[in-house]
Amino acid sequence: MSLKVYNTLHGKKEDFIPIKEGKVGMYVCGPTVYDTSHIGHARSVVVFDTIFRWFRQLGYDVTYVRNFTDVDDKIIKKSNQTGQDCAVITEKYINEFHIEMDVLNVLRPSFEPKATEHIRHIIDFIQMLINKDKAYHVDGGDVYFSIDSFKEYGKLSGRNPDDMRAGARIAVDEKKKSPLDFTLWKPAKPGEPFWESPWGKGRPGWHIECSAMSYEYLGESFDIHGGGKDLIFPHHENEIAQSEAVFGGQFVKYWIHNGFVDINNEKMSKSLGNFTMIKEVLATYSPEVIRMFLLSNHYRSPIDYSEDSMRETSMGLDRIYSFLERLENIGCKADGTQKGELWDDFSFAMNDDFNSAKALGSVFEAVKKGNRLVDDTHDNTDEGLLEILNLFYNDIKAISNILGIFLLDPQFYFKAKKDKGMEDMAIDPSEIEDLIQQRADARKNKNFSRADEIRDLLAAKNIVLEDGQQGTFWRFE
RNA sequence: GGCGGCUUGGCCAAGUGGUAAGGCGACGGCCUGCAAAGCCGUUAUUCUCCGGUUCAAAUCCGGAAGCCGCCUCCA
User: Fold this and answer.
1) Is A104 exposed, middle or buried (0-12, 13-18, 19+ CB in 10 A)?
2) Phi, psi of A230 (to 5 degrees)
3) Of all protein residues, which has its CA closest to the C1' atom of B70?
4) Alpha-carbon Rg of chain A, whole angstroms?
5) How is domain A307-411 classified at the architecture level of CATH?
6) Is any atom of nucleic acid chain B found less than 7 Å from the CB of residue A341?
7) Which of A122, A127, A158, A285 has the fewest C-beta atoms lying within 10 Å of its C-beta?
8) Cβ of residue A312 lies below 7 Å from strand B
9) Which nucleotide is nearest to A11 (CA to C1')?
């Protein structure tokens, strides 16, 4: 089955056919680095990281570009508030972003250009627009893009410029030819960062950097452009206008937009004060749980962050790791490139517009099937069965490389979880081992009331005991 | 006001016109001293509602209701 991609430009799923055979050019809008990243940033980054991994799995030579917007009104505002230089602020948040994304097991893109390092290209791009009468320079130093010069304006977001002109929410600016015209270059006020340009000292507008940088790294036309849904208008609409006005041809073949993360069914917003930062989430949940949570819904649907949904994801992850551990204990090894039925189901889901939610469903189905097979033989597996189970094991390992989750050693995973639980609750492991030993003695002497008393004692600390053939194990619930 | 989206069991959620994946929870069973974990079974004759197309609709078309997003910085 071939890959199908939902294209915002046409509002439907389409067969993916790259512009150049065997190659994929992909540009995703990265953060404006003026503040700590929130769970919504994490979703966008994780979603496109998974898409990037899937393209590579399909054998494409992928050039993946994700920019940093490091010149912007919000950065300047923060600089004025804190007295720190803009460059200090942006460097701080770029570092923070990298650390957090590394923790979430996000691969680094091929290129991570910064707007400030491409001012020359941005100025050249603006000059090309002016030369083609697509943009104009006004007194005071502003350069605007002229909407009326681009007749296809609105094709991505399905907006009609005439309707928008009639709307009341557009600020009227005397200097603009049309109220919809947007800024390409703005003059610097005293104290603001600036660069020399043919239009005086100033800095680029927001939209132009992506047109200029995508051109530098991917050329006039490329395959995939992504970002959050909110960027469809005006940001991506304006990018299309800029790039197609200059080069004439189609800027981007497939536009991909991810949905939002809600917090307890509400949109994250400053007024609600519910911005949930990645570092806050990491304080409570392991990076894998976060990543798995972000992939547990289809990327275009909204996803609701709540304690319940995170707890459920965490339990699901435990289930998968328990299964892996069980397979390892009976001798399964990742031993080659052979793929099984699970991989086929997984591929089918991923090829259907990167349906990671469905793909995870196929993993759980396999866990259930595999557990049943092992149960039926009471862990005394023969060679034939081992072969089948090994296929499951191989497939799950291969899948973990695409989804970027459950790729730890299960023993390490459970140990880390234990360690964290002990740290959080200030528990001494030897204390617990001691109680477990006391309970074992009590059970041996058929003193079950004492045994149950100890179990209740531990349960109060969120510790669950599991009596197995090789003794008693404990874990945090 | 303009544009777009969503509505599937107690909750979350997939769903490719062919007879409702999966997870969590609940209940019953196997296992266990009792549990836990795992497994098995039961939990939607039906997909917000009303029409239509079709041999066949959760899926396509039309209409209604509710919710949400974008149009202002936003992933």
Assistant:
1) buried
2) -65, -15
3) A230
4) 27
5) Up-down Bundle (1.20)
6) no
7) A158
8) yes
9) B4
Tokens for A288, please give them.
């894998």
Could you say which residues of chain A have pLDDT below 70?
1, 166-173, 378-381
Distance of CA A258 to the CA centre of its chain: 9
| Strand B atom within 7 Å of A155 CB | no
Residue A113 DSSP symbol: -
Any bridge partners for residue A63, and if so which? A25
Cα angle for residues A180, A186, A187 (degrees, 5° grid) = 145
CB atoms within 10 A of CB A63: 18
**Span A234-261, pLDDT tens digits:** 999 999 999 999 999 999 999 999 999 9
For residue A420, the model assigns a pLDDT of 87
Average per-residue pLDDT for chain A: 92
Distance A365 CA to B20 C1' (A): 16
Joined together, the tokens standing for residue A45 give: 């980054």
Q: Can you read off the two tokens belonging to residue A396?
A: 């799950």
Does the CB of A304 sit below 7 A from strand B? yes
Cα gap A217→A25, rounded to integer Å:
9
Share above pLDDT 70 across residues of chain A, in percent, rounded to a whole number: 97
Q: What CATH architecture does domain A4-258 belong to?
A: 3-Layer(aba) Sandwich (3.40)
CA angle A382, A387, A390 (to 5 degrees): 120
The domain spans of chain A are 4-258, 307-411, 427-476
Q: Is the dihedral of CA A133, A135, A138, A140 positive or negative?
A: negative
Could you tell me which of A349, A287, A252 has the C-alpha nearest to residue A19? A252
Whole-number Å distance, CA A454 to C1' B36? 14
